[in-house]
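Quick one, probably user error.
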């Protein structure tokens, strides 16, 4: 609706222009668009019928070139009226000082090929009006090209709206390249699945465009800036952007570098990008306010009004980035921004929330085998979550109308999903029967048997004789020692209601009664027992449970049934201890659990701050290069023959020891430099030490990732050189580019830059 209102206003304006100017029809008057342009005069309108046409150049003319979209607003004409570069030329060129009176509207520009703007090229002050365009499948030379969809250079500042740029590629700026004071104003633009070396969606250099309601998703760069790359005195403004699921080696969402690459982002959403939302090496920090930025908390650019919470899109998997009713981005934008059309405070993201009506989704979760209700199942509908009640029921009320995938998860059952269509004011009943999961969960099996040795007493008042159950008491005895942790057992007695009382109790392997339950009668009684107490040495297997059921006539009846109880077989390590050592080291030790049954302990995984440090068979490891007074979390997990236990953790603060000895070491150092620089095959790094010291010399790439360690150990005093052959840790050659080498001695750090040219 928002687009249509904008378009209607434009249509009224442009219709008045048509009435006062010559209308040229293509192909009726001219077979090609370019021929019509060549014969046109200022103020003319060229109306183009559906079809495919070759490349065009406006040649500085103040004219309107439009598809039939201009006449009736039918958006189908955009896809039907095509300007093609036929893989040999760009699609459209503006390089003769065109102004806003040079208008291109309602086309698909595709199959362009050029190193500067394979789709559209605006140069040397050209600033046309570009509206309602699809620019797709245009490609520049992968080795040296700029702007696969659009290249805007040298004071070219077009006014653009309602653009869709997809599947374009170039080395710099997969979709758009802004350079040299190209300060375009762009509204309602989508950039998807574009690719580059730098700036998958766009690269901005020495320019400050203003972009409203921009959506960028699925873009990628092989280096940095999966969506946006900003550098060189550029100050772009992004108002209400949505930047989702873009990828690169650094700054999957936004990458800023060099001198004053400083974007301003307001009322935006930057989420799901890899490896991070925003990465800045710029001398000027990005200005980001009132925006939802994933993992932005604590960053220097995480400004006023920013949040870090799942935006709860309607269906991100289907590229629907409208907000659901539960989104934290609703009314969370800058209160000084223009209000949303409904009069509320601005929302974050490219699309403001529009309620579409509400309904209810309800149902019952049952077992597909027994038909019995399942309680405690987790049901999700969109971003709503509920837990089934004792009778298996669930209910979601006030759910925004739309298409949803209902998901049900329950312990020991196969996860189930079901598609649900919900209309306003509708109640949808979605009952789900779950299949038992026999493959993912370990069980102990219980057999229910009769005990003929038990003395039975008749009850002549019972109305049903000896063919029906009337349990007087039940005793459950564990026949083997096993390992049980947090198990739960449910027993259902008779399915009919009979008078009388019964009792049930469980006896531990040592013979100690641990739980007793007295039901009010022997009818439909469900009993649940839970304990953490069973521990033993023998293999977990089948337990025999003896049920002795008394009948009114002295007889008894065997009830065949099987019950399951979940059991834990992978014990974690115990008694983690930490010992501080000198030279920034600490020793972590732990006790091994006793394996039981057929489980074999094969080793341990050791973690430090959630990172796997080592796999070992020892019960002690040494952590090195710790920082004094810094908090760390150590963790150890047991490796069994086919699984890993939970991680046992210990948090500690490293305290330096041997201070007196360390104070005698002089940490003054000089990182002299490297030569040659730039280099091709190898380079030599020179440094000097006044005293014997523990030395680290590491190589980092341009995004701060360590790629090679040259020195890690104690060196004597003196002057030294060490050679780097241009390979990274895995032995592969490093790519051409800027690298940093960093020398660490004690608390002193010095870094220098070098350039590798392969």
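Nope, works fine. Designed sequence:
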């Amino acid at each position: 609706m928002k687009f249509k209102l904008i378009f209607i206003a434009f249509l009224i304006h442009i219709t008045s222009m048509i009435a006062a100017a010559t209308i040229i029809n293509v192909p009726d008057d001219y077979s090609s668009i370019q021929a019509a342009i060549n014969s046109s005069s200022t103020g003319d309108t060229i109306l183009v019928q559906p079809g495919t046409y070759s490349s065009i150049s406006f040649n500085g003319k103040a004219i309107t070139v439009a598809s039939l979209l201009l006449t009736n607003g039918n958006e189908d004409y955009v896809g039907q009226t095509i300007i093609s570069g036929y893989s040999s030329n760009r699609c459209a060129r503006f390089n003769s000082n065109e102004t806003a009176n040079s208008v291109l509207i309602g086309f698909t520009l595709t199959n362009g090929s050029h190193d500067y703007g394979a789709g559209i090229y605006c140069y040397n002050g050209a600033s046309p009006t570009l509206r309602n365009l699809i620019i797709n499948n245009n490609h520049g030379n992968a080795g040296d090209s700029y702007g696969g969809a659009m290249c805007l250079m040298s004071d070219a500042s077009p006014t653009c709206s309602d653009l869709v740029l997809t599947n374009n590629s170039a080395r710099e700026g997969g979709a758009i390249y802004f350079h040299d004071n190209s300060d375009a104003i762009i509204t309602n633009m989508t950039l998807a699945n574009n690719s580059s070396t730098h700036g998958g969606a766009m690269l901005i250099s020495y320019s400050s465009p203003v972009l409203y309601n921009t959506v960028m998703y699925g873009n990628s760069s092989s280096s940095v800036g999966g969506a946006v790359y900003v550098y060189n005195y550029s100050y772009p403004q992004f108002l209400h952007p949505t930047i989702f699921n873009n990828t690169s080696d650094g700054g999957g969402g936004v990458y800023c570098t060099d001198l004053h690459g400083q974007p301003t982002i307001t009322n935006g959403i930057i989420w799901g990008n890899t490896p991070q939302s925003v990465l800045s090496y710029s001398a000027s920090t990005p200005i980001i306010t009132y925006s939802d930025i994933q993992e932005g908390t604590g960053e220097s650019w995480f400004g006023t009004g920013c949040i870090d919470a799942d935006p709860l899109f309607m269906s991100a998997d289907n590229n629907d980035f409208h907000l659901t009713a539960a989104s934290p981005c609703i009314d969370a934008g800058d209160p000084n921004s223009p209000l949303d059309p409904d009069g509320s405070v601005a929302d974050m993201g490219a699309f403001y929330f529009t309620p579409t009506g509400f309904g209810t989704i309800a149902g019952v979760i049952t077992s597909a085998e027994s038909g019995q209700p399942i309680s405690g199942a987790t049901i999700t509908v969109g971003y709503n979550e509920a837990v089934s009640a004792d009778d298996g029921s669930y209910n979601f009320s006030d759910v925004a109308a739309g298409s949803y995938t209902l998901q049900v998860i329950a312990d020991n059952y196969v996860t189930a999903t079901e598609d649900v269509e919900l209309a306003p004011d509708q109640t949808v009943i979605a009952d789900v029967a779950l299949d038992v999961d026999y493959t993912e969960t370990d069980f102990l099996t219980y057999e229910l048997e009769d005990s003929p040795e038990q003395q039975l007493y008749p009850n002549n008042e019972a109305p049903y004789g000896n063919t029906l159950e009337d349990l007087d008491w039940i005793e459950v005895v564990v026949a083997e020692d096993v390992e049980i942790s947090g198990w739960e057992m449910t027993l259902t007695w008779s399915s009919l209601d009979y008078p009388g009382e019964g009792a049930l109790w469980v006896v531990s392997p040592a013979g100690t009664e641990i739980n007793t339950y007295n039901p009010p009668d022997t009818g439909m009684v469900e009993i649940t027992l839970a304990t953490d107490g069973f521990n033993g040495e023998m293999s977990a297997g089948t337990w025999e449970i003896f049920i002795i059921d008394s009948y009114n006539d002295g007889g008894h009846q065997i009830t065949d049934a099987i019950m399951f109880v979940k059991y834990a077989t992978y014990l974690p390590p115990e008694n983690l201890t930490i010992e501080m050592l000198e030279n920034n080291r600490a020793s972590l030790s732990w006790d091994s659990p006793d394996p039981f049954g057929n489980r074999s302990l094969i080793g341990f995984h050791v973690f430090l701050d959630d990172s796997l440090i080592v796999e070992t068979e020892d019960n002690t490891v040494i952590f090195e290069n710790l920082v004094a007074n810094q908090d760390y979390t150590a963790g150890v997990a047991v490796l069994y023959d086919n699984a890993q236990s939970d991680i046992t953790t210990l948090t500690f603060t490293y305290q330096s020891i041997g201070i007196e000895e360390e104070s005698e070491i002089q940490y003054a150092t000089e990182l002299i430099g490297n030569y040659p620089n730039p280099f091709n095959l190898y380079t030599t790094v020179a440094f000097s030490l006044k005293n014997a010291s523990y030395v680290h010399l590491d190589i980092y790439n341009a995004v701060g990732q360590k790629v090679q360690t040259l020195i890690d150990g104690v060196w004597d005093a003196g002057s030294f050189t060490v050679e780097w052959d241009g390979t990274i840790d895995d032995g592969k050659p490093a790519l051409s580019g800027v690298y940093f080498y960093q020398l660490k001695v004690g608390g002193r750090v010095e870094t220098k830059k070098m350039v590798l040219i392969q």
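The first strand starts at residue 23 and ends at 26.
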